[in-house]
Amino acid sequence: MKKIFYLVLGLVLVLAVIGFFIFGQSKTNNYTINTNTIQVITYSLAEVASHNIENDCWSIIDNKVYDFTGSISEHPGGVEAISLACGKDGTSLFDTKGNKNKPHSPKAQDMLKSLYIGDLK
After folding, report:
1. Are 87 and 46 in contact (CB under 8 A)?
2. pLDDT tens, 60-101?
3. How many CB atoms lie under 10 A from the CB of residue 108?
């Protein structure tokens, strides 16, 4: 019984060492990233204007284009608050929190980053 235990233990150790050499060593990438080649997608005002309904809602804020389609129903101010900006420049609505002359919270501004899809041409 002891021989089987040591045999199994030895086999496990051998497999662990082999696994380390195959999977455990860091690999170097054979490519480089040239940050000068990153291109931002741009959209015309006409392209944004075609996304002007609640279930297909893009808006412009500070010359950046955002897709609000998936999050429009989660807006604390209701669907209507965002739908006013669908297909349009919503900068003033965003900056004044829907004409209430209050800025949006830092959290709201942070959320915009995940909705960004490109710049206005």
Report:
1. no
2. 999 999 999 999 999 998 999 999 999 999 999 999 987 788
3. 13
Residue 60 in any domain: the answer is yes
The count of other CB atoms within 10 Å of the CB of residue 29 is: 6
- Contact in structure between 85 and 79 (CB atoms under 8 Å): no
With contact defined as beta carbons under 8 Å apart, do 50 and 86 qualify?
no
Say if 84 falls within a structural domain.
yes
pTM above 0.70, yes or no: no
Residues 6+ apart with CB under 8 A from 48: 58, 59, 60, 65, 87, 88, 120
* Number of compact structural domains in the chain: 1
Strand-strand pairing, 64-67 and 116-120: antiparallel
